[in-house]
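Protein modeling request. Please complete all fields; requests missing the sequence field cannot be processed.
Requester role: graduate student
Desired output: 3D structure, token encoding
Chains: 1
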Amino acid sequence: MSEPAASPVTQSAGVAQVESVARARPAEGGEPRESTARALGLGGVIGALLAVTNVSMGLKLGWWESGSVMAAVLGFGGMAAVARARGSPYTPLENNLTQVTAVSVGAMPAAAGLLGPLPALMLLGMDVPGVAVAAWSVALGILGVLAAHLLRRRLMEEEALPFPTGIATAELITAMHASEPQENQGRGVWLAVAGVVATGVTVLRDILQRLPGMVAVPGSVGGVPAASLAWGVAWSPMLVAVGMMAGLHLGLSMLLGALVAWGGLSPWLVSTGVVKEAGYDSLLSWLTWPGVGLLVGSALVSLLAQARDFRSAARDLRSLGRGELLPRWAWGWGVGAALLSLGLGVTVFGLSGAQVLLSLVLLLPLCAVCARGAGQVDVSPVTQVGQLSQVAAGVALPGSVASNIAVGGVVSGAAAQTGVSLWALKAGHLLGASSRRMLAAQLLGVLVGSLVSVPAYLLLTRAYGLGSQALPAPFSHQFRAVAELAARGLEGMPAHAALAGGVAAGVGALLTLLARGRLARWVPSPVAMGIGFILPAYFAVTLCLGGIVAAIARWRWPQVTGRNVPALAAGAIAAESLVGVLIGALKLLGVMS
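Delivered output (593 residues):
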């Protein structure tokens, strides 16, 4: 999930305001503080919180948060008052470096493939050691950060693409440092209250087991008990909070997908005997295909709509020879990361040398496509370019399902870090920050992120079980389905699943086309609908309730809601995620069974 893009008029005014403040900022001792231990340390702490949150939210919903705005707010809230009291004010450049570091740490679950490719491999039975996953994540994270810096001058300085999330972050940092202290206290209160409530609910539910995971809807749907189809409401502050942040449109779209899948198709599948029993696991093996069809159909149209970005990416690559884009030491990091990717790909993930080299050749141009998407429309098509690389590998170098997933993981992992790095860099560019200091902070964030994300992933999967109703890992199904089609064709698919997937792909493509016109606000999101096919139905119901609550609050108290909902949601999501990691640790130690 990324913050909504501002209008062009707002962007222009905001850029002018931020740049004027940056120019007018007086230097203290010749240069304002920027790369300080407190800025980097706080960024690491906030980023670790964001990384754990993204692991949990990604494995449950398939969504993750770039975190630029949230990191800027938490950085200011955590440091400004203390620094002012000690007579050493927390500068906007320090605040920027905090968010740059935090964003790099927080993107590592996606860069490591923990939200899609790795769960797909584990569900296929591949056992990858945690140390190897951490090393793999460092290599892909470094390549993604370096790709962002190689493209930075072309996209930000020469073409001046807006990168709306970066503009919003810079505007927020400028506004917070120009405001009175009391104006920012409310966010911290909402975050703390939400965190306490979410912690209490999660402890009662998962540790003390005084609350059920879901309150089931009574009755039946098409002759099948509603509880068997997972219809109900979850005791999950995280799902409510995600619904509040995602908005009513996405919540209703996911609920529509759940109604079609778990309210219409599932009873028909059971009654006709296509699926033998009414249960989440048995029905999911069929519903995955139309769900993935919606996602793939939407992805294809989105990529076709970005055809100009592919041509522009070629020009971007040709421009890389002009001037010094990276310090010399950074090229050494890049060579080392590429060699590490090659070694681990062959020895751990079962790729051939040719498959790893193909993924590395595709990496920079497809990262450039994601960079342009992030810069122009505030959307980085990470999963789509990963699957494009899967298709390319299936055509050029056919192999096993697992190796095809791993190729997609290389490209999508690096591309995830590239997109969020450029959002963070745009904020720094507007504030007058040093690109070399931001590069160093981002590489530090990659190292910290791998050390946090991989253990969090292992603990959460131990606590809840990968592929279970509690941790369905929806995007692992998309990577696996594309790999199976690339490796095996239609062989082995369940009865009627190929037809359903094809129809769903057409529907996903049509909805994506309609959403580009005047009907956009009325057209359901095919991506959210596809996720509604894959997740348990109570996820969609609970998330939609969160969207309804936020919509009512915005109608009744627009200013208060707009200012405080992000902090409230962040507190709830982070608290439930951290309790989940704690449960995994307790199980590892044998304290919980």
